[in-house]
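Form 7-S
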Amino acid sequence: MAQAQTNHTHSTVNFLLRRMRHNKDFPTFSKYMIEINQKLSSKEKYLSASDVANVILKDYSLTNKLLKMVNSAFYGISTGKVTTITKAVILLGFEKVRLAAASLILFKHLQSKNQTSELKDATINSLVSGLFARNLAERLEIETEEAFICSMLHNLGSHLVIFYLPEEYKEIKRRTAQTGEDETTASRSVLGVSYDDLGMAVAKTWKFPETIISSMERLPQGRIDKDLKDNLLRSISNFSNEICDIISKTEENSLEKVLSATTNRFKKIIPLSQKQLFKLLGSLKEDVEKYSGVINIDIRNSSLVRRLTPDSEPQGQGSNIYNTEHVSSHKSQETAMNNEPLHEEYGVPYTADDDEDTQHILASGIQEITNVLVENYNLNDVMIMILETMYRGFGFNRVIFCMMAATRKTMHARFGLGKDIDDLIKSFGFKLTKSSDFFNQAVSQGKDFCIDNSNASDIKAQIPGWYRKIINAPAFIIYPIFVNNICMGLFYADKEDKGMPVPENLLNYLNTLRSQMILAIKKGR
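Output:
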């Protein structure tokens, strides 16, 4: 019998995954989720800033949103504006960036043009519960970002059913309304698998860590035993989502009583008095406004958000039970931002919107690198910041830093960003010879090259065969790096369209970035 249930469960999950793959947005979304979680897993033996940056920078929208989030009050960074993903990784660490990026990707995916009111409410409720869990985790002195995403993803299974299986979702709602079944029983009856099991199964395909997956499982009814303290994140996820569900669905005259019962149910694991609960809830609206502005979620029509603050509930709709002394009087401003789509093709080049945007990215990146160079810095991190500034500012398809071998007989790629970069790093390199090709000329003579058409008759002969085989981009630059008249390496960057890869009026930025690389090497030796 157990085996039959297991097979049925697998068939349901596989059916959902097939349905998801037919959605035009899912393949890109799935690739991002899997790569984010694989590449940025804290279990990796070695992870560099370039590994992290390369995953994030593959998408313009994700890069912008993550930088806005990092610079928002949500993280409270006091070291000045962060303008590169590399600096964000340095300040926040790999794990926080991974969780932040994963949450942004998920919210973006759920905010489709055809989003139903049910999915919109579910998305907002997951955000609110995540932020409540984050504040609760801070009070309990545990990792706040992990609590945030565990609580936010707690109802992933039901979100996916709303999005991909709307008819089945309607039937589940009908059963709960007519038969009084709870959602777990009704979803299992309709789907053959509960919402929780469905969400956990999909999360496994996306390579989420076990702590997040296990937090999707609902706790049993009744008082929560101390033994569950070993999985505190699961308790926090359940508690946060139950509290938000109660606030959004319970009548005003019963609300305080129901909240009290839930607090008592969890008190062995989450020691929180009624007064402390109301204080956390009273300050939650401001956090929701700040974060919703960063990820571009419209919270104005959310009944849950309205009930979080006393002066925003329309007369006759039920006022809020929270005392105004618990609510911050600060009026936060929602951050305006563009609603950029995920690129349909995974790994397309990063492009700035216009010349002003290009110069802003370049100038901001150069300033951030300058600030880092006056501190104690890791040379590899500075190299990645320079590559990232080049990649984003000039809109290259790929940027690579090649380093001279100790034997001074070969040059090989050390770091890179852009399309197919993982494979290119392994193969991009050349032997130093007396050849007249552009790469050897750059190293032996210290020449800079900006190639606008690699197939032009006067240029073809100087393009080496190894390059034609590996990349063969129509436009590229080679900028050697000399320190005390000795070539230490070079910058390579390309575009997949003919034309000058760097406009003449922006060459000074490229020269400045090279000078910063030279200074970083000198100071780091």
